[in-house]
Amino acid sequence: MTESFNETQPIYLQLVQKVIMQIVRGDLKAGEKLPSVRESGTQFKVNPNTVQRAYADLERLTVVETRRGLGTFVTEDIVRLNQLREQLKHEKIDTFIQDMKEMGFNSNEIKAGLYEHLGDKS
Amino acid sequence: MTESFNETQPIYLQLVQKVIMQIVRGDLKAGEKLPSVRESGTQFKVNPNTVQRAYADLERLTVVETRRGLGTFVTEDIVRLNQLREQLKHEKIDTFIQDMKEMGFNSNEIKAGLYEHLGDKS
Amino acid sequence: MTESFNETQPIYLQLVQKVIMQIVRGDLKAGEKLPSVRESGTQFKVNPNTVQRAYADLERLTVVETRRGLGTFVTEDIVRLNQLREQLKHEKIDTFIQDMKEMGFNSNEIKAGLYEHLGDKS
Amino acid sequence: MTESFNETQPIYLQLVQKVIMQIVRGDLKAGEKLPSVRESGTQFKVNPNTVQRAYADLERLTVVETRRGLGTFVTEDIVRLNQLREQLKHEKIDTFIQDMKEMGFNSNEIKAGLYEHLGDKS
DNA sequence: GTGGTCTAGACCACC
DNA sequence: GTGGTCTAGACCACG
Q1: Does chain C have fewer CB atoms within 10 Å around its N or its C terminus?
Q2: Considering CB atoms only, which of D25, D104, D116 is closest to C104?
Q3: What residue spans define the domains of chain C?
Q4: What CATH architecture does domain A11-76 belong to?
């Protein structure tokens, strides 16, 4: 499963997204240890520096904490994690609606389109 | 309304998106002339070359045509334009659903979330 | 039958080629009158200036003559026309062979490839 | 052997052709690194941007891949490379035959002409 | 006036 | 070091 990266978006930002997704999905739980920068680096075939940068960003977002000599861990702050999940959900929905309206679709068309697509694969 | 440009995405790609949106929304109709590369350049405060690059991409996507010495025009091929609109709609919806499911939401949660947000602003 | 033009090659050169082809094929015979620049212009939807330039080139190649107030005519010099035909034939074949060899094909492969293609459509 | 550039064709397209030829001939093998845009630039006495444009085109044709910070490489996809060679061969032969027929030569004359020329130099 | 190409030189992200 | 993007300014062909 060699996942590849988008071309126009910086790799470290894609890594940030990837980790956030894992946390929100629950693949990475509160307090759990993230792979080391070296591990991640070899796994995704990117430079450890790039991983490091992504982890730094994640720390700035207060979703992970790094403990010296131990590694990087998902925050224990469950409130923060729930908040993160809700926040991302609202953002995603909002930008989706905004994009669709920018394309000239009204609320009903959006609902209809969504139903159609959920029908096939729900 | 001086819209500015994103940092992470190349300007010329943002221009491509912008024009596609204008076409899909109907602000630019089939056969209509786009502003010249120089005009667009001064309007968006970017170099004409950058606009040129965007227009070249748009031509490769067969949504515009350039006529030597005359200018760049939205394609007259209405079928193509409708296809473009449908294609973008499906892509948007698909990636939205995929993203939401990646975050661990099921179909019903997605629908509910959407309704909630459409309620406020439909 | 709206014939279109290549993008990278100047239109007037493509016109030159077109006329030469008509002469070599015999569609335009020795002494025959070419359409006026205006006629050609409207027919091919190009500027008369462009046609004019093509005709000037053809005159420089001594395959047409322009007579003031009368129009542009294929040269009466039949020797020149035969020479033209032979010259073009040899040039075409030579560059074809050269191109194929540049691509790494040897004489036998070239012959074989040609037979194959002539088989379908001879 | 300082090869120079044609006047009527854009330099970057001539570069594209040149590289494709090198690949088809086997001078550049699957996975091999192309010279950097700066190297090529100085070698051919053109601006690195021009080389860059050619490389971008080649990537769009999926005959090369660029790896961030590493360089530009001939694709490892050997199937693609063989397809490329076959495709170019057929195109060359087809346009050759078409051109010759346009000039009024029939299949036998084409074959005869080819044999004549191959005789001298095969 | 239009788009298309090219140069020179700069800055960025990535390795 | 690599490719990718951008600017400023130039020249060309075409209408």
Answers
A1: N
A2: D25
A3: 11-76, 79-121
A4: Orthogonal Bundle (1.10)
